[in-house]
Model the fold of this input.
Amino acid sequence: MYSNLWLIPFFPLLGSIINGLVGKRIKSEKVIGGFATLLVFFSFLVACQNFFRLLGDNVKTHEIVIFSWMSVGKLQVDWGFLLDPLSAVMILVVTGVGTLIHLYSIGYMHGEEGYYRFFSYMNLFAFAMLMLVLGSNALVMFIGWEGVGLCSYLLIGYYIEKQSAGDAAKKAFVVNRIGDFGFLCGLFVLYWTLGSKGVWTFNFVEIAENAHLLETGGLVVTVVTLCFFLGACGKSAQIPLFTWLPDAMEGPTPVSALIHAATMVTAGVYMIGRMNILFAMAPSTMLTIAIVGAATAFFAATIGLAQNDIKRVLAYSTVSQLGYMFLAMGVGAFSAGIFHLMTHAFFKACLFLGSGSVIHGLHHAYHHAHLHDDPQDMRNMGGLRKKMPITFITFLVSTIAISGIPLFSGFFSKDEILWWSFGSTRGHWLLWLLGALAAAMTAFYMFRLVFMTFFGEQKTDARAKDHIPESPLTITIPLMVLGLLAVIGGYIGVPAILGGANHFHHFLDPVFGKSLHLFHIEAHGTHATEYTLMAVSVAVAVIGIFVAWVMYIKNPELPAKFVTKFAGAHKIVFNKWYIDELYDFLFVNPCKKIGTFFWRGFDVKVVDGIVNGVAWVTRGIGSGLKYTQSGYLHNYAVAMVVGVVMIVGFYVFG
Amino acid sequence: MISVHHYLLLSAILFCIGIFGVLTRKNAIVIFMCIEVMLNSVNLTFIALSRHVGNMDGQIFVFFVMTVAAAEAAVGLALIIAFFKNKESVDVDDFNMLKW
Done:
């Protein structure tokens, strides 16, 4: 019944191969971009079809095996896809947002060198991401997991002539490898432990069914889940592995929107959701996740307060919002985490694409005026709302959504997370406090961004300020669709207390219900508490917006005064808490030193010494012995006879 | 009465003559003939022992040796002719180009 599931990852793979192989010969950008977009759109259609089938189906978990991959002893691994509510949500988000961002890229990447390369990578990314979320066993998932990492590397380093882009790509790749190491270790331990109990499997359904073989809260399950969490940290940019994500902004803006906001970075959250039963069995891991998530949400938000690069603010905001999702996973609010993943995909993709639209416009204006100002620096913006009305409105809507203002999508998802982190059996009020503070800061820095960019007087160079155009339709249509989704996307998950039915939660229940039920994870508290928390989170958001308004609209000179008064704090935050410098000091430089030592000391002296020494000895012996090759037949004959005599003598007399 | 020892002794004498010839003569054709003498001395050993032991394997071996010797003679003489065409000589001391 779901046998056409394989088409979903197949279409983008096809597009990637065709554009990669023959794209260079296709001269028309519209053909390349249109083809790539269309194929992702086809995937979206197939995903929709399967999603609606699943909605009407009583059985919610379907495994479709395409063919056997490997069969070794008791291990049987298939190329199989798993369709359940969780993966259905994910494929809709990936293909839906993916289609819009592909469409956007047609206009945004216009005239770039290597246009076909970009679309080939983007399609490859869509393929890998779909394999990740659809894989029915951990090995297929791992292929997707590595594939998205590779595409992320390729696309961050898209501007190959830029040193900084190459460095950022390498950084992302290396940091991701640390996470992948954790993921693999967890997988191996899990495989061996389950195997020693008689279940040799990588299949998610079988793992979930046999999870009871492991001891709840025991050492094994804790170690396994902590290893998985390390993997999730790498992919989803959590403390301590978050430093690569802000640097990843070196890539083109659609890449930041698709990979580093909407889809790839949420893979860690998805993975925890996929293995939720294991995580539910390990309360100490859950607590770790919740603490790391809340800390990341708070910490990244503080950095976002002081950045001036429009994309970096959004990058730290993404790290912060991912922290929210991990906080949700850690307190057992699995469906709320996935809900926030989805709404975040809408509004953050819209924000990134909006910032791309602004950068595109400014770039155009600077190009027109032959200037070389930084089109990403918000200090050069201001007053753009009249120049770019569509971008402005969609951006504003998404900003309201991320700030958690009622009736917009971000409110419902964020509020559910905050409620669970306070009221869940695995929550704590301190986690809630960190989350609420982060929410206030989010509202502040996002509105700071909006005010600096779209309001106030225009600070763009006078020669360029009159040449800022609104972006073309291929750019604004995705913005409008995503902006609309950012408004209404939350209504599928309105909580019961607000008179909603929380369809989203019930839809995901077949995936998460078992672990919530088995381990008694629930959010409890009176309605009064829930209303109070809701009011508090709305209040802090409004306060954040108000402070931003006072500082950047009413008294534009205030921020400068602030900076001089709290110079020390500002410096620390502006320099991102010196985390990069700290890591350079602790890990990067020692690694380089060790590398240099092994290069200069070991490789050059010992390894090369041995190799060259062998050659030197051989040459010396050869130059001595070459005189035996006299060229006279008799010498050889004598040598042979003497040799034969010696051998015979040895056997006869020896 | 001629026993197997006499055959073996004769064979050994022939073999030594062959070796002596290979080591001392300079003419390639003579060296070649000496090799043939050595081969035939081995043949003699084979046949003598075959008869002595009462097993025909040795005599069959001799046929192989003769076949190989014939082939070797063809190839060897051809090489000597080719060399003579180049150097106007069959002296092995002139065959000394392959060296360090």
Notes: The mean pLDDT of chain B is 91. Chain B is about 80% helix and 0% strand.
